[in-house]
């Protein structure tokens, strides 16, 4: 699902709200979540999951095109841990709609 698809679905489900207001709300939510992570915060949405930052240490990597070794510096990566409700719903729906290949 893309951001525009989310806005479209919310607009359909909430016809009393103007599409511009729905778009503003979604953009504000994403902006606030981004700011929270950028300042070292954590995001937790009960039933959905939590977002946090993990630190990746510097290491030697390899350019896949040339095979040349390159130095990769320290960086932060966003980590998502799904909540119990989300995990259960996904597992239930996989039994009903098995269109994604199982690994």
UniProtKB/TrEMBL annotation:
GO terms for cellular component: chromosome; cytosol. It holds the Pfam family Bac_DNA_binding. SUPFAM superfamilies: IHF-like DNA-binding proteins. GO terms for molecular function: DNA binding; structural constituent of chromatin. Keywords: DNA recombination, DNA-binding, Transcription, Transcription regulation, Translation regulation. The keyword Cell inner membrane does not apply. GO terms for biological process: DNA recombination; regulation of DNA-templated transcription; regulation of translation. Belongs to the bacterial histone-like protein family. Heterodimer of an alpha and a beta chain. This protein is one of the two subunits of integration host factor, a specific DNA-binding protein that functions in genetic recombination as well as in transcriptional and translational control. This is Integration host factor subunit beta. The lineage of its organism: Bacteria, Pseudomonadati, Pseudomonadota, Gammaproteobacteria, Methylococcales.
């Amino acid at each position: 699902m893309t951001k525009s698809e989310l806005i479209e679905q919310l607009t359909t489900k909430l016809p009393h709200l103007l599409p511009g207001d729905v778009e503003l709300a979604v953009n504000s939510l994403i902006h606030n979540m981004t700011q929270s992570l950028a300042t070292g915060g954590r995001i937790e949405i009960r039933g959905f999951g939590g977002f946090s930052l993990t630190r990746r240490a510097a290491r030697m990597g390899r350019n896949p095109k040339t095979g040349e070794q390159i130095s990769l510096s320290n960086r932060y990566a966003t980590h998502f841990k799904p909540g119990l409700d989300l995990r259960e719903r996904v597992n239930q729906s996989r039994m009903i709609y098995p269109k994604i290949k199982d690994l």
